[in-house]
Amino acid sequence: MGYLYLFVAIISEVIATNLLKATDGFSKLLPSVECLIAYIVCFYSLSKAIKYMPLNVAYALWGAIGIILITIFSVIYWKEQINTPTIIGIGFIVIGTILVNTFGTGH
């Protein structure tokens, strides 16, 4: 059940973060309201996920998967550039997440 809540938290965080760019500094009402709702869903779901799984595992997965998805979305949808150091940094995040999940004391 924890992974289902975590999945909802990740997806809603990715949606909210992309909407955050669309709010134009919270100057556009509809994207601003949608963004805030998505963040509420995100943090509610994350709070439910950590009832079923260790905080360090949930947060590592939430952060890593969120960063990867937001980066992909920003390149495809927002047409933002990505460079080699960014890709290397994301690789380190993935490696760190694998280490936390594999060797973390929460399992």
From TrEMBL:
<dbReference type="InterPro" id="IPR037185">
    <property type="entry name" value="EmrE-like"/>
</dbReference>
<feature type="transmembrane region" description="Helical">
    <location>
        <begin position="84"/>
        <end position="104"/>
    </location>
</feature>
<feature type="transmembrane region" description="Helical">
    <location>
        <begin position="26"/>
        <end position="46"/>
    </location>
</feature>
<dbReference type="GO" id="GO:0005886">
    <property type="term" value="C:plasma membrane"/>
</dbReference>
<keyword id="KW-1003">Cell membrane</keyword>
<dbReference type="Pfam" id="PF00893">
    <property type="entry name" value="Multi_Drug_Res"/>
</dbReference>
<keyword id="KW-0472">Membrane</keyword>
<dbReference type="InterPro" id="IPR000390">
    <property type="entry name" value="Small_drug/metabolite_transptr"/>
</dbReference>
<dbReference type="InterPro" id="IPR045324">
    <property type="entry name" value="Small_multidrug_res"/>
</dbReference>
<keyword id="KW-0812">Transmembrane</keyword>
<protein>
    <submittedName>
        <fullName>Quaternary ammonium transporter</fullName>
    </submittedName>
</protein>
<dbReference type="GO" id="GO:0022857">
    <property type="term" value="F:transmembrane transporter activity"/>
</dbReference>
<feature type="transmembrane region" description="Helical">
    <location>
        <begin position="58"/>
        <end position="78"/>
    </location>
</feature>
<keyword id="KW-1133">Transmembrane helix</keyword>
<comment type="similarity">
    <text>Belongs to the drug/metabolite transporter (DMT) superfamily. Small multidrug resistance (SMR) (TC 2.A.7.1) family.</text>
</comment>
<keyword id="KW-0813">Transport</keyword>
